[in-house]
Design a protein that fits this description.
Blueprint (H helix, E strand, L loop, with lengths): L8 H32 L7 H11 L6 H49 L12 H30 L4 H13 L10 H4 L37 E6 L9 E3 L2 E8 L2 E8 L5 E6 L21 E2 L3 E5 L4 E6 L4 E6 L14 E2 L3 E7 L4 E7 L5 E7 L8 E3 L6 E5 L3 E5 L6 E6 L10 E2 L4 E4 L6 E7 L2 E8 L10 E2 L3 E5 L4 E6 L5 E6 L9 E3 L2 E5 L4 E6 L7 E6 L9 E3 L2 E5 L3 E5 L3
Antiparallel strand pairs: 1-32, 2-3, 3-4, 4-5, 6-7, 7-8, 8-9, 10-11, 11-12, 12-13, 14-15, 15-16, 16-17, 18-19, 19-20, 20-21, 22-23, 23-24, 24-25, 26-27, 27-28, 28-29, 30-31, 31-32
Length: 570
């Protein structure tokens, strides 16, 4: 019987190795899972200390090289710590996999070398062996589950930062755009030569045309290609794509999207957007169809005060429609739409909830939403500085940048106040400019994605019209009729000009001229390069104008209070 009391040496060694490997696998698995939970809360791009330093720099009236260097150093070490953690996680995954393999092989060898004891009679306690076997199966199953989960976290799951940087690396592998190339040219080739949203491509107020008409007469028809009555009222501006013009209109009886031909002005179609909810109360200055539409060249998008958001094809057929909630605020829905060709961006603020959302242009599926802390009636704009594409939004305290792909906040500067309606402006390179009445105007220089306040100005400020910035100047149009020109680098006032009526329409840069239409319907055309106000022309449209014109293919499309005008040469 002694041969059964002794265990072979190899079996004992294998069993010991299996036990050690099992303990190692369990410890590493627990550590990997715990590390992943910690990693979910780790965000080196928005580390509290880093955000505090950025806020200190942004709110500083003067540039601070020391703070900039501190930000760069802290950001560098934060990223190094993050990627060191990523490497450790993958090393842990390899260790876990190796331990699991060793444990499995050792158990097999231990079982092979284990002596087989003879069975003597019937077992007196069969339940004990069954429970013992069940316990072993449960332990093995738990171990396998921990190993699978840990390996998945170590090798499959990517952090948000890893995804962002991977996308940046892919973009870096593409040919670099020419120097001075702005956001408009980063979009589709057609988009930069059309007028897809309020204030043109990207919503920054820069027309791609080299020049536009500077002389016409509405009364005689000289220089006016056509004039067409608009039957459904709305304060939204026209958008243009190739041979079609799109606008919307609404009242307490219904909501419509309509399309006109660019050559004749004739209405091609009008589509009713049905709503099931009750219409909200709106002010006379806003109405039920204040937001300007947007297009990606295949579909057109419209939103109304009812909260109805709809996409239509170019023949007027509704492709998708949804209601995203009736806004509860004093003015109704005022923010216009914008698209980057893949996503439709909607800034949707009301008293109980403030948010910005992105929808898939093809089917209307919500891609992301990001909560905001304050309300506004301004519209989002899309810019592309050297650091990458950004979605810029204003609110009653801040100007904020978001990643258009993920909705993640990139930066924020507290510099606004009051009831904000004007949108941000961009010079096409590195300066963002925001302004609002009862606050101040602020020029922000984007240094590697970090905003730095260049200067602030607090005299003549806009209430509705968005500002305009060029490489040399920033222009402001106020609701009491003031036009202001400021040096973009210093904030020095270069000139001030009083007009008879105020401005709701935003000024637009076309070549070397700026076009600004006041509420009385007078088009003020002035030199964008002059150091003093130099008027090129002042032309009356014959009716009030509340909307911003569209500039495409040498023509100007102006929506007046009653008519749609096309200005251009034959």
């Amino acid at each position: 019987m002694s041969e059964f009391k002794q265990k072979p040496l190899m079996g004992l060694i294998s069993k010991s190795v299996a036990l050690v490997a099992a303990v190692l696998v369990f410890v590493v698995a627990v550590l990997l899972i715990a590390d992943h939970v910690r990693l979910l809360k780790m965000d080196p791009l928005n580390d509290p200390v880093l955000l505090e330093l950025r806020a200190e720099l942004a709110n500083s009236a003067e540039s601070s090289d020391a703070v900039v260097e501190k930000i760069r150093t802290y950001d560098l070490y934060a990223r190094r710590a993050f990627f060191a953690n990523e490497e450790q996680r993958r090393s842990g995954g390899l260790l876990l996999l190796s331990g699991a393999v060793v444990c499995f092989v050792a158990l097999k060898l231990s079982n092979h070398w284990k002596p087989k004891l003879p069975t003597v009679g019937k077992s007196e306690n069969p339940d004990h062996w069954e429970l013992n076997n069940l316990f072993r199966q449960l332990m093995a199953g738990t171990g396998i589950f921990l190993v699978v989960v840990s390996l998945f976290l170590a090798f499959v799951v990517q952090s948000d930062l890893a995804v962002v940087l991977k996308r940046a690396d892919e973009q870096a592998g593409k040919p670099a755009p020419p120097v001075g190339q702005t956001f408009q040219s980063a979009l589709s080739g057609e988009m930069k030569f059309n007028w897809p949203s309020l204030r043109g491509p990207g919503g920054i107020g820069h027309a791609r045309m080299a020049e536009a008409p500077i002389s016409w007469d509405v009364e005689t028809g000289d220089g006016v290609l056509w004039k067409e009555e608009v039957f459904v009222h709305g304060f939204n501006s026209p958008i243009v794509w190739n041979d079609r013009i799109f606008m919307s209109g609404a009242d307490d009886e219904g909501q419509e999207v309509f399309c006109h031909d660019v050559n004749s002005g004739k209405e091609l179609w009008a589509t009713t957007i049905e709503t099931e909810g009750e219409l909200p109360e709106v002010s006379e200055d806003t109405g039920y169809a204040a937001p300007t539409m947007a297009t990606d060249g295949t579909l057109v998008f419209a939103i109304f005060a009812s909260g109805d958001l709809a996409a239509l094809d170019f023949d007027g057929k509704i492709v998708w429609q949804k209601n995203i909630g009736v806004p509860d605020n004093p003015y109704g829905m005022g923010s216009s739409l914008i698209s980057d060709g893949q996503r439709l961006f909607v800034q949707y603020d009301h008293s109980d909830e403030q948010k910005v959302m992105a929808f898939d242009v093809a089917n209307g599926d919500e891609l992301w939403r990001t909560a905001r802390n304050h309300i506004s009636w301004s519209s989002p704009v899309l810019i592309e500085p050297e650091s990458g594409m950004q979605l810029i939004l204003n609110d009653e305290e801040n100007v904020t940048a978001y990643d258009p792909v993920s909705g993640k906040q990139l930066w924020q500067v507290k510099c606004l106040g009051g009831e904000v309606a004007p949108s941000a402006a961009f010079n096409g390179k590195d300066i963002v400019f925001v302004a609002n009445e009862y606050a101040q105007a602020t020029a922000l220089k984007l240094n590697g994605g970090i905003p730095e306040i260049l200067w602030q100005y607090d005299e003549y400020l806009p209430e509705i019209a968005s500002p305009l910035v060029t490489e040399k100047y920033a222009f402001i149009a106020t609701t009491v009729g003031d036009l202001i020109g400021l040096d973009i680098q210093t904030g020095e006032v270069k000139w001030e000009q009083e007009c008879d009526d105020g401005f709701n329409a935003s000024p637009i840069l076309v070549g070397n001229n700026v076009y600004a239409i006041d509420l009385g319907g007078v088009v003020h055309i002035f030199d964008a390069e002059a150091e003093s106000y130099h008027e090129i022309a002042s032309i009356e449209m014959g009716e009030p104008v509340y909307t911003t014109p569209a500039f495409v293919n040498g023509r100007i499309y102006i929506r007046g209070d009653e008519n749609l005008f096309c200005i251009g040469d034959d």
